[in-house]
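Is this the right way to post structure tokens for a design question? Let me know if I should format differently. Anyway, here goes:
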């Protein structure tokens, strides 16, 4: 497809993917409230079998005429453990060991050393997995920075929002899933609109700027919400967030493909997806640390001295260290029983739960505020885009090479 046509078809693909997003949260909430959370995993077995059978029977087996010896196996062998080490460091630092532990630091050092080795290999290899000359392309780098920042900062909002809805607004798991659905609907609609606009005008810069601004605005509006606020506000703000995401997500891929030579389109697109996935995992881990530390300090500040004095140390620590305790019916009843057996009253325990709600809201408000600031930064970066004329026809490799210098000079 030509670059202009790609915007439309990327929007179609994104719509199909988002259809799963539409069904996922309410179905997951149904499983969590009903037969059990393990069914969130079991349901993927028949879906995976159907997907595998479809791919096996319909995907064409094409060959490009290359040789196996041309593949950059050395680069892949170095990049894989570097990625695994970095992801383990981010995950374990958040869930178990902390960022200052020897295990986390060791994994980060190992990831850094391996990445340096990977860069050296890629510079020398004639068929590199990620050709280093791509980073000389200003638009490729700028698009990558926007993709990384949006994945790490902005799109952590829908990851942690369901917890906020349940802990601070008092909704069920199924209701929190339903409240996320408007975002997916708006995302699909705006993806189609963005694809059509680019197809007709060949322009994308203003759409990306508006999309980043809408996502940042939605995050800012979310940070104004607190305990007891109406649920319809969440749905409204997520519509705005989905509109912004629908403008940015498909166009990032189109811009990447338009700013490189045609023979580099595949590696440019896949490398950007790789960067976004890594940034997303690390961003979620960092925001998890932010939420945990902010919640713990806020709970300690909000709880009344009378309540804390009547509370066993173990109960206080459990409430202080786990913001999601109140939405686990079985665990919260165990904690309630322990508190009452220690001489506390039902009224005091409800005050403790109220302090937990307020602390969880404060933690999520800080996350949303940082995401809003991230949206503002993304707007500034998007304004630095050069409006590359999207080719209305498929270029041959030679024509793409001829267009590349013009693109590079225009980007300067």
């Amino acid at each position: 497809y030509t670059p202009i046509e790609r915007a439309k078809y990327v929007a179609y693909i994104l719509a199909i993917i988002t259809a799963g997003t539409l069904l996922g949260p309410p179905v997951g909430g149904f499983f969590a409230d009903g037969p059990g959370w393990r069914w969130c995993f079991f349901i993927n077995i028949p879906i995976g079998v159907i997907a595998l059978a479809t791919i096996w029977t319909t995907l064409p087996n094409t060959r490009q005429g290359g040789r196996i010896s041309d593949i950059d196996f050395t680069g892949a062998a170095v990049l894989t453990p570097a990625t695994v080490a970095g992801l383990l460091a981010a995950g374990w630092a958040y869930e178990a060991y902390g960022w200052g532990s020897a295990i986390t630091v060791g994994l980060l050092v190992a990831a850094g050393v391996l990445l340096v080795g990977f860069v050296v290999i890629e510079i020398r290899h004639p068929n590199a997995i990620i050709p280093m000359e791509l980073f000389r392309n200003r638009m490729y780098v700028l698009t990558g920075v926007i993709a990384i920042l949006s994945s790490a900062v902005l799109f952590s909002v829908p990851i942690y929002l369901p917890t906020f809805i349940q802990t601070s607004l008092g909704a069920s798991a199924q209701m929190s899933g339903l409240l996320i659905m408007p975002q997916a609907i708006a995302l699909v609609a705006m993806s189609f609109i963005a694809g059509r606009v680019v197809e007709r005008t060949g322009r994308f810069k203003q759409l990306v700027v508006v999309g980043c601004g809408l996502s940042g605005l939605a995050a800012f509006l979310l940070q104004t919400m607190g305990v007891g606020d109406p649920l319809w506000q969440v749905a409204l703000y997520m519509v705005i967030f989905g509109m912004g995401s629908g403008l940015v997500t498909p166009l990032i891929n189109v811009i990447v493909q338009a700013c490189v030579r045609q023979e580099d389109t595949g590696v440019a697109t896949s490398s950007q997806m790789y960067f976004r996935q890594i940034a997303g995992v690390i961003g979620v881990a960092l925001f998890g640390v932010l939420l945990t530390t902010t919640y713990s300090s806020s709970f300690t500040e909000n709880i009344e001295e009378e309540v804390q004095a009547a509370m066993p140390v173990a109960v206080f620590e459990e409430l202080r260290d786990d913001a999601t305790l109140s939405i686990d019916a079985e665990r919260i009843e165990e904690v309630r029983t322990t508190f009452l057996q220690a001489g506390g009253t039902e009224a005091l325990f409800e005050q403790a739960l109220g302090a937990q709600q307020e602390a969880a809201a404060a933690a999520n408000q800080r996350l949303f505020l940082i995401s809003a600031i991230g949206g503002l930064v993304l707007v500034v970066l998007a304004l630095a885009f050069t409006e590359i004329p999207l080719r209305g026809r498929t270029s041959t490799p030679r024509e793409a090479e001829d267009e590349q210098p013009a693109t590079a000079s225009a980007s300067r």
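Format looks fine. Someone answered above. Worth noting: Confidence is low (pLDDT under 50) at residues 393-412. The two ends are 27 Å apart (CA to CA).
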